Model the fold of this input.
Amino acid sequence: MRHLRVLCAIADAGSVRKAALRLGMSQPSLTTQLRRIENAIGGRLFTRERTGSRPTALGRSVLCRARPIVADMAALVSEARSAAALEGGARLRIGSTASRAVAGWVRRLRVRYPGAEAGLHIDVSANSLLQTVADGQVDVAFVHEPEGFPLRFPPGVEQHVLVAREPQFIALPETHPQAGRRVVDMADLADDQWIVDFTADGEWAATRRAFATAGLDPRMVHVPDNTTAAALIAGGEAVSVCQPVSQQRQGMVIRPLRDDPLAVRLLLACRSDSPPAAEIGGLRADLMAAYAEVAWASPAYRWWLLRHGGALLPPPEGGLAPSAAERSGIPAPGRAGGHADTATTAEAPPNALPDGPPDGPPEHVLAAAPGPPCAPRRPPAPRTATPRVPRARGGG
Done:
């Protein structure tokens, strides 16, 4: 069974390297295992090309038999785990690609379902997460879909839009010449080294398209972990596309890109025949509240939201409401004159954005939030009834 999973993983990922990352193995180890499988079968199952690995005719024949077996085994394991979970109490299994909103989402779900155990599964691959939802191994998943590069939704998995278009920002060293700008042009970063992650579904393809549109051919370095990436950025060695809710660390600044050339769609996915599907309204509301919390706490994203407005993202209850200057459209003290995109003043540190709004009154943003923007809100009344808790269920 392990060998069959390996073959399916290589075929789905399109390369041994990507499959190794998904399986949590080293590439040499997976290559060795594939050779053993091919030796046991007596023929090559994949051709190694410059662009990846493709199944041979023999490989396609084996995969046709392997996939149903792997799926049946996954369903069996899922059903067994669900039965065990029912005996030991309700459980909600959450999947997500990387996001700062996840912590607040889990916190809210614990309040909504006080008797349920919340399991968490994080994966760099959104397509892999969707497959775990289809297999019944995860109840609900929060995923990012790069604009123009749709994710593969397995049959029976439904999607619910959280944010239709989230702009992607740029992380720069605080000493970078463009760090003092409110908005950065991609063309001004042509001489920089860019950090990219080839393993995130659609991310590299979307970035490459943005480079081509801007007429850029920058130097690139593959860095799959955030710790190393942050160190390289803070050390002045590279720049990187990042989520607008990303945490601004010491030595770096986060800025919007002019005209938002990179964007993603934020989606919530679950199986249409699963218990969470009936609870999707509450699950989505909790995730939206968690996302709004981190979005409005981010100086760069807060500035972007006030500028672009619409009903995209009302300020969170109990969060940081727009200041009086932001509501009135009056520039903050010390910002008279100067370039419209300049982000720093004599009083402001280089990694801070100004408090004033960019282009005028943001009433159209605040109209999306019920009631006066700064009015205190009473806490919600305590629940009097125990809500129905989604129970894990695998299989069909």
Remarks:
- The radius of gyration is 24 Å.
- The chain has a mean pLDDT of 78.
- The longest strand covers residues 157-167.
